[in-house]
Amino acid sequence: MEISIQFQKAFGSEFLLEIDDEVMVQIIAASWLSARSRAVEDWIERVLGRASLKLGRRFQNEQQHNPTTPTSNGSNSLHSNHQQDPASYFLKLARQYSPAPGAPCASTMMEEDDREDEPTELNTINSSGGFLVMSTDKLSIKYTNVNLHGHDVGAVQANKPAPVKRLVYYFEIYVKNAGAKGQIAIGFTNDTFKMRRQPGWEANSCGYHGDDGYLYRGQGKGEQFGPTFTAKDTVGAGINYASQEFFFTKNGAVVGAVCNEMKGPLFPTVAVHSQNEEIEVNFGQKQFAFDLKEYEAQERMKQQITIEKISLPPNVSYGLVRAYLLHYGYEETLNSFDLASKSTVPPIYIAQENGFDEQDITYALNQRKTLRQLIRNGDIDAAIGKLRDWYPQIVQDERSATCFLLHCQKFIELVRVGSLEEAVKYGRIELAKFFELPGFDDLVQDCVALLAYEQPQDSSVGYLLEESQREIVADTVNAMILSTNPNLKDLQGCLRSYLERLLRQLTVCCLERRSLNGDQGEAFHLQRVLNSGKKAKC
């Protein structure tokens, strides 16, 4: 798991390098050769960033269609049926790029996943109403009775529990009148809390009290915690889901924090307990006295500092980048990268104990590079010709997933250049073979639908004209060639580079960590992690 956490450091690149642009790579490599070790560090950072975004988008798309949590080696329901045919995996991937009618985009899906109800006002039903009066906007309460007994408390919960899909939840009260005794309290309680008691007096509750500055956590007596608070003070209570702590503030400054050991939904709760005590509650409808954004930034910085303290050999990132270039056949980039690394002082070499086995992915490197370049340039006829010469077994079955993706891409390229009549003829000959075959029909329909639009790139099937579609076809051919290696040890290694496996491990670890926290805290989205790393460096 340490490697996964450490890997997040690489997300902070500026993403100036386009890994798929060999010319740019060569230019940048040449300019960096004299910069020694810093050049390689920058290169590693940019390559990891660019590659991570590509794989992250692909993995995010896969997760949207197959929500089963993947294991770190990538085995889930998507892959279990394609152990013998790597091309089937990429066919699935290509089909997933097709948006369902009315389907939201990835960013919208993330927003919907994060959306949850949150408190907006006080609960007029679940309160000790006999001892308080609530304002019509349900954001202010006043104690109107005479405090004769310990249980004559005017307590009230928020109308909703604190939301949990975030780093921090926080709310505040403003003390308009401290009343006779200043026995005002703020905190959190669960749904079984007795509303005739102060928060913190009962089990499953926690409260900071103004008259003595004590913190009560359901243990019958309070503990010294912070200063008292009275009229004109603003006091806040929050939940830090990352550290699993309650924290409290006074007039914009943190008073202290305690461990959160409570279970279940937690409701923001306030209480008044002596005559004329009056408070206003702020659930975020106006600006807080406390700088919540700065607090969140500091919490994230603490996490980053923890990450920075993890010690790993410097050649781990180097090995990831080199293995990525090898896996996807970027031979020229790899040669320049190796040359740059040899110029460092001391030179960087891959340590075998880091687990980077390059034997499988060095296979047929030059041929894989050539085919990738042809496909990415849209020259599908030449790519098919090379395959027939070099690896006839891959295209021997004309109804295989590999042939299907190649024929689809040829059709797409004809549409791209406006050769619609030729595209129709080609579709009738080559795509017609796949009309009745399960697993192919939906992608065939999308390809044919390109003919129906004057501006197909702006249509619902415009995704087929994006570079990502060429990438999928190139990756399919790349994986199929790797699978022909007679000394192949792991078929799964044909599908995914070490970098993608690491992204999967990162995802698994973050999801598991959140699960151990009771599914509390920010929802994990790999694409958001990668994008946030990019913004942090801009």
From TrEMBL:
Pfam families in the record: AAA_lid_SMAX1, CTLH, SPRY
Domain B30.2/SPRY: 100-288
CTLH domain boundaries: 364-422
Region (Disordered): 58-82, 101-126
Bias (Polar residues) ranges: 61-82
Extent of Acidic residues compositional bias: 110-120
InterPro entries, alphabetized: AAA_lid_SMAX1, B30.2/SPRY, B30.2/SPRY_sf, ConA-like_dom_sf, CRA_dom, CTLH/CRA, CTLH_C, Gid1/RanBPM/SPLA_SPRY
PROSITE patterns named among the record's database cross-references: B302_SPRY (PS50188), CTLH (PS50897), LISH (PS50896)
Protein name: B30.2/SPRY domain-containing protein
Organism: Hevea brasiliensis
